[in-house]
Amino acid sequence: IRCWSNIPFITMPLSRAHGKSFAHRSELKHAKRIVVKLGSAVVTRGDECGLALGRLASIVEQVSMLQNQGREMMIVTSGAVAFGKQRLRHEILLSQSVRQALHSGQNQLKDMAIPVLEARACAAAGQSGLMALYEAMFTQYSICAAQILVTNLDFHDEQKRRNLNGTLHELLRMNIVPIINTNDAVVPPPEPNSDLQGVNVISVKDNDSLAARLAVEMKTDLLIVLSDVEGLFDSPPGSDDAKLIDIFYPGDQQSVTFGTKSRVGMGGMEAKVKAALWALQGGTSVVIANGTHPKISGHVITDIVEGKKVGTFFSEVKPAGPTVEQQGEMARAGGRTLAALQPEQRAEIIYRLADLLTDQREEILLANKKDLEEAENKGRLAVPLLKRLSLSTSKLNSLAIGLRQIAASSQDSVGRVIRRTRIAKDLDLEQVTVPIGVLLVIFESRPDCLPQVSALAVASGNGLLLKGGKEAAHSNQILHHLTQEALSIHGVKDAVQLVNTREEVEDLCRLDKLIDLIIPRGSSQLVRNIQKSAKGIPVMGHSEGICHVYVDTDASVEKVTRIIRDSKCEYPAACNALETLLIHRDLLRTPLFDQIIDMLRVEQVKIHAGPKFASYLTFSPSEVKSLRTEYGDLECCIEVVDSVQEAVDHIHKYGSSHTDVIITENEKTAEFFLQHVDSACVFWNASTRFSDGYRFGLGAEVGISTSRIHARGPVGIEGLLTTKWLLRGNNHVVSDFSEHGSMKYLHESLPLPQRNTN
């Protein structure tokens, strides 16, 4: 037997061998039997008198949802004392108000003193009401609840423990949610100090230890401890350097400094950690999280069960590598060192990576072959994604060429002066380019993205977190290894980190203190999900690539089929591939129109008819379901327009502001199109496929942005930089520039330093 404070714990619970807790959060979705412990701060109101009904209703809803999924839910709850205090205060006030009204009138009612209420009396008065409230709430979800009151003494008697165990198992078998609480009405007297003003309450340590005991006794898979803090911090929450601990391992107690207890309860976080570690030792996984935050309490329990990063997860299995939080800190520190290197040194790193891509191509292609074989065997990837996953010698050669372009063009990217102003005599201001900070790039089925983005991050001096899809795990591992080998020549290996595939994208999007910019590269659904999940972190990218080609009446016959074929058929899975072909009405039933249709048929492109196009045909192709469709395959929509203005209007209504093209020999019409189409890339007589960082001469791109701030179109080095202001003075103060001051503002523009154009 071990003792914590005055609470005995039996280290080996009856009839239970040591179990195996879940090693990772992602496994929590398999939890069958779950205990939810509600701390006093969760259940009680902010005024410390009565229950927080809104929070309680939300918790019941989540528990009911999980119960109806086939899980076995149990609740260990506080709240009887607070609920009883509310009732007793009401009764006392009512009694006093009647007596005083008879003697001194209503004016003195405000000055009535409320006597100190004894905790056990409050518990006795509140227990029945608390249970009635739970029953009423669970009834809304067609779930029955049952109350069980226990004391510490019940765990000392073996027969009582057997009886408790049998009762709980029988309730769970009948799909009933047990509501368990300490029988505060008959416990020994409380400690002399109090938690609630005017009320001595039973130490919350009792319910923490009770929840841990029950969890292990009942062979529970998961114990969720809800309190009024986000989880376990390495120092008291609210202190300057306090950091939330994502995963806590046995033996880490020495790295934690515990602060004062919460608003209610005596045990505080230290008691919760001790109880959690004891439950973990017994084979039960534990998560400590905030059950009071209005923005997350409505789904905190379900989020935990779904494996999301909520609160602190207790695990016995330490990962082989650093956590993503540690990786973020390493990337930031490495990025700052990288930015401090000489431009020639950053270029050397990129040149070295380019050489490694060709020197180690056999290893790279072998790893890529494993990914392709696994994807094909599992059948989980569509044909377009398989094409994106595939690497080849020609792709690696093109990558190496692009990386060398980046290295050559990056000589003056960081620290370049873009504005100089003389504010006053001996007071000069400069605006210079600097890295954004730490980038998170999330990409699907595109292992060639890894060296491209890494090179751009190196050139711009940014730290980088990379999150690739598990379908490209082998390819990404070898490419990241080569990237770190190149970085090592100047001691900045940590600047580029590959995030473990176990990390959920939604969880990464919440790391607003570690990440400065998110760049998604993948399906439109991925981009939309990231834009929705990102909290406080800007997202740069495009959710869809709905690119248009408009064929004008003055289009050249020779150019039309070449440009359309290249735009649609050269690489249909690309985001810059043609998806909607707009044809001027006057071209219908002309030889040019027939040539377009014949070419598409030869290339096996499936045609979908837009509403207007279908109205001109007796027997039309399948009518398009939506004019806002990105096919990503050998499919496209054909629609008819009456003029270049109607083509512009159609693009604005159904396009994604990515890339749009006009084919015409009429310069006036072309210029109208170029000036009026509001997209990131607008071309005249050129394929949509030119919308690419490599083809633009940027060397490579981190993606194509359709947003309207910071960067737009293919984003290269320039899009990964921001600026800062440097002011050099000599004992200058603002008061010298006042109306009666001795100095005057000059605001003279100064010439910029000569750029290195080699």
TrEMBL record:
Under the heading CDD domains, the entry gives: AAK_P5CS_ProBA, ALDH_F18-19_ProA-GPR
GO cellular component terms, semicolon-separated = mitochondrial matrix
The EC number(s) attached to this protein equal: 1.2.1.41, 2.7.2.11
Keyword Mitochondrion applies: yes
- Describe its assembly: Can form homodimers/multimers.
> What function does this protein fulfil?
Bifunctional enzyme that converts glutamate to glutamate 5-semialdehyde, an intermediate in the biosynthesis of proline, ornithine and arginine.
What is the name listed in the Swiss-Prot or TrEMBL entry for this protein? Delta-1-pyrroline-5-carboxylate synthase
